[in-house]
Amino acid sequence: MQRLLRFVRGEAVTEFSGVEGIEVFSDRVQPHSPGLAGRMWYGGASLRSAQWAGENGMNLLASSVVKAQESLVVIPTDSASPGQRAKYLQYAQSPCR
Q: Which residue ranges make up each domain of the chain?
């Protein structure tokens, strides 16, 4: 995970870059999105993983669910549109999942 974060932040992935035929090769992850690493989330299930997320500058995705019931569906809807909420609810109630 630390390696992925370094690459997303712009560190070189390989020593090779240049043009070969019509192909252009970059030594970095492309397309680069400034600030992407700061928008990535890490799912924590323990104090240790929460500490790791903080030490590595990641957002922490946590839940208050301690024990899953028969068929648990946890979907954050605080920023979802009404259409997205309806879609999530339909999924959660479907027998297919």
A: 67-97
